[in-house]
């Protein structure tokens, strides 16, 4: 197997895999009209990417359809370009639904007209749209011009119309994976339009005046545009489901991390919400609730704490101040009413209070700090060992 054939099979495999992925998504959202158009276009892309491979394995399929084979492949290509253009029309919610539907139907009429012209012209043509070099006496025939304009002209129009509409939507993409997939897909589509349709139209236009015109560089450009464009387009399309899978895995990983941090933070949370029950928000003991209530509890406790002896970003330094504040409150409770708590003393510290919790760039740094503070306080005996061992996130 040569390199080009291997690339074609790899491209076809990627396109078919992406198509299966999007079909599954459509079964979950069957009423999503833009997704229906996208899936239709991907199915057509899968067909053209697979049956276009020159291999004896696919010869029986071509033999079965006979002379209609060229109509099938060209119709798939033109319909795929239509789906590309209409998809970006339908997802543009800045236009009214009625306007989008009307434009989609008008463009469908243009597609049907182009396909009809393609089929009829070839059937009525005496030489079956042969190359001018093979029939120089008839190279000025209108059939050839109509046939190539209907096939290549429509494809070039639809591909670039879709690219223009896609560029208008790019500002709405904020996810870096989505933006990367967007640019790769657009580049692939434009490469196919130029390599296939523009090259074909250029070559046939010049052949109207020079029947021997057939430079190698145009043939190479056609192959590069067709193969390279489809391959780049396949990579861009594959990036979307890969990004979804990666995001799902990352979400699960972060959920597990948050659960582990929450378990380590629960002893500190229980202590602070016991000292200051009014900071409790209620609900499940998830990470957001526990971390928020720890922050509120530390803000309340700060008036009873000495100023941290060092950087409070160091969990040990912060634990020193927190332990002192909790000890002070415990001593006051024991000194009043036989150890029964009856509220704060009137001589508690006035603002500004010491800052116990620093600012952190992300949730993971904040959670790590809280967990280490809780671990340090547990080691000192400020937080009970048995309470930590029995705690579990809700």
Automatic annotation (TrEMBL):
InterPro entries: DUF6545, MAB_1171c-like. It comes from the Bacteria. The chain crosses the membrane at residues 6-24, 36-57, 69-92, 104-126, 146-168, 180-202, 222-249. Residues 257-377 form the DUF6545 domain. Residues 328-361 are annotated as: Disordered. Keywords: Membrane, Transmembrane, Transmembrane helix. It comes from Kibdelosporangium phytohabitans. It holds the Pfam family DUF6545. Residues 346-361 have a biased composition (Basic and acidic residues). The keyword Transmembrane applies. This is DUF6545 domain-containing protein. The keyword Transmembrane applies.
């Amino acid at each position: 197997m040569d390199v080009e054939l291997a690339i074609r099979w790899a491209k076809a495999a990627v396109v078919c895999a992406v198509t299966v992925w999007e079909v599954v998504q459509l079964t979950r959202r069957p009423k999503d009209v833009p997704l229906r158009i996208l899936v239709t276009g991907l199915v057509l892309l899968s067909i053209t990417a697979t049956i276009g491979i020159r291999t004896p394995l696919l010869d029986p399929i071509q033999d079965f359809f006979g002379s209609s084979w060229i109509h099938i492949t060209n119709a798939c290509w033109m319909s795929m370009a239509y789906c590309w253009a209409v998809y970006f029309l339908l997802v543009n919610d800045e236009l009214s639904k009625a306007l989008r539907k009307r434009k989609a139907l008008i463009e469908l009429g243009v597609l049907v007209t182009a396909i009809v012209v393609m089929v009829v012209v070839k059937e009525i043509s005496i030489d079956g749209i042969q190359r001018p070099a093979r029939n120089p006496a008839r190279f000025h025939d209108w059939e050839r011009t109509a046939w190539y304009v209907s096939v290549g002209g429509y494809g070039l129009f639809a591909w670039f119309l879709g690219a223009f509409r896609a560029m208008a939507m790019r500002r709405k993409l904020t996810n870096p994976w989505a933006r990367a997939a967007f640019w790769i897909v657009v580049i692939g589509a434009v490469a196919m339009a130029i390599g296939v349709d523009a090259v074909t139209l250029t070559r046939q236009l010049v052949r109207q005046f020079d029947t021997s015109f057939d430079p190698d560089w145009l043939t190479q450009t056609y192959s590069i545009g067709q193969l390279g464009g489809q391959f780049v387009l396949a990579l861009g399309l594959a990036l979307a489901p890969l990004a979804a899978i990666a995001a799902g895995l990352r979400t699960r990983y972060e959920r597990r991390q948050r659960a582990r941090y929450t378990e380590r933070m629960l002893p500190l949370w229980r202590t602070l919400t016991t000292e200051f029950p009014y900071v409790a928000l209620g609900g499940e003991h998830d990470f957001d609730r526990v971390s928020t209530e720890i922050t509120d509890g530390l803000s309340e406790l700060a008036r009873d704490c000495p100023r941290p002896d060092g950087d409070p970003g160091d969990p040990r330094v912060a634990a020193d101040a927190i332990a002192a504040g909790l000890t002070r409150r415990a001593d006051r409770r024991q000194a009043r009413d036989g150890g029964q708590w009856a509220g704060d003393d009137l001589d508690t510290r006035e603002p500004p209070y010491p800052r116990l919790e620093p600012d952190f760039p992300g949730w993971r740094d904040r959670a790590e700090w809280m967990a280490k503070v809780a671990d340090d306080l547990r080691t000192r005996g400020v937080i009970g060992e048995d309470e930590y061992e029995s705690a579990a996130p809700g």
